[in-house]
Amino acid sequence: MFKRSLLLGVVSGILAGLVSLAYQKVYASSLGYDFSEIVKPYNILATCVFAGIAAAVGFWALTSWLKGRGEIVFNFLLVILTFATILGPFAMKLPLEIEAPELFPGMVVPMHFFPALAWFTLKPLFFKPPQQQKVFA
Amino acid sequence: MKKLFLSAAGLLSLATVFALTLPLNWEIADKYSISFSTNGVSGIFKTFSGGIVFDEKNPAASKFDVTIDVNSINTGNGMQNKHAKGNDWFDAAKHPSIRYVSKKIVKTASGYQSTGDLTMHGITKETTIPFTFSQSGNGGTFSGSFQVNRNDFQIGKPGGSVGDVIKLSVNVPVIKK
């Protein structure tokens, strides 16, 4: 269980990192502002993988502790934490040489959602979805 | 012929005297820095322009008339920039520039001192700016720092997370015109 969770975390982290790098390229080419000096590609990838591993540990811990309800609590926590982290880019003070700091959150905030999106997308491939309950008999 | 020679000599003398007493005009070069700092916020103004007439030997005949573009403020944070340009602070839409016009420049023990009118947020206050000038070849650099109380100019509300007294540092390289 822990190994599978960890593997999901690493793979979703790598996927989120690659999507983030692609988004950074698109953002820079379309708006003409490149923040790669502030958020280096290596750091983006490393942060996404770290987020994936943290999610994996959290998922394993909560599902081991709360059993059936663990996943529900985990999903809520992952989304809440993801939303909470977007405050960071808005509060960040960039070097004064950066011409348009107001465009910085537009690049970074979507990236904060990619690890959670990758996790939710890939999870069914690693963990069998729970049996659907028949609501209407 | 003698008259012509005397006239030419007179004109030359006049021109020489005039050239010697003419105050020096300076053009603001690139890489100037207009920075500010206070508790909670610091940053720069990116656009600065104006006329500088300055003669080290004759500071009394010198004059500064310079303008800062309020919209060029950069605190390093987009939200703070927007906030600073907004109604509660600089109100850049109504008051797009900060202007300083010197009235008197005197030599002091450590450099020079300019007393003039500083206009910010539509309010003009007499402000004294101590500064130094270092000349090298055809250029030079003005450096100075001074403090203003933002409440004197009704910028923002008194107190809060942003300090009332703002320290401004100016470093302006110039080239002889």
Give the secondary structure arrangement, pairings included.
The complex is a heterodimer of chains A (137) and B (177).
Chain A lengths: L1 H30 L9 H26 L3 H16 L1 H5 L12 H23 L11
Helix pairs in contact in A: 1-2, 1-5, 2-3, 2-5
Chain B lengths: L1 H20 L3 E4 L4 E6 L2 E5 L2 E6 L9 E7 L3 E2 L3 H8 L11 E11 L4 E9 L2 E14 L2 E11 L15 E12 L1
Antiparallel strand pairs in B: 1-4, 1-11, 2-3, 2-11, 3-6, 4-5, 5-7, 7-8, 8-9, 9-10, 10-11
Can you describe what's shown?
The complex is a heterodimer of chains A (137) and B (177). The longest helix of chain A has 30 residues, at 2-31. Chain A is mostly helical. Chain A is built from five helices and no strands. Chain B has helices at 2-21, 78-85, and strands spanning 25-28, 33-38, 41-45, 48-53, 63-69, 73-74, 97-107, 112-120, 123-136, 139-149, 165-176. In chain B, strands 1-4-5-7-8-9-10-11 form an eight-stranded antiparallel barrel. In chain B, 16% of the residues lie in helices and 49% in strands. In chain B, a hairpin with a 2-residue loop joins strand 9 and strand 10. Chain B is of the alpha+beta class and 177 residues long. Chain B starts with a helix and ends with a strand. Classes of the chains: A mainly alpha (137), B alpha+beta (177). Chains A and B meet through loops of A and helix 2 of B.
Shape of chain A: elongated
Count the strands of chain B? 11
Alpha-beta classification of chain B: alpha+beta
Q: What do the pLDDT scores of chain B average to?
A: 88
Content of β-strand of chain B: over 45%
Encode the helix/strand succession of chain A as letters: HHHHH
End-to-end Cα distance of chain A? 33 Å
Give me the count of strands of chain A.
Answer: 0
Pick out the low-confidence regions of chain A.
none
Beta-strand percentage range of chain A: under 5%
Provide a concise account of the structure shown.
Helices cover 73% and strands 0% of the residues of chain A. With 137 residues, chain A is mostly helical. An 8-stranded antiparallel barrel of chain B has the order 1-4-5-7-8-9-10-11.
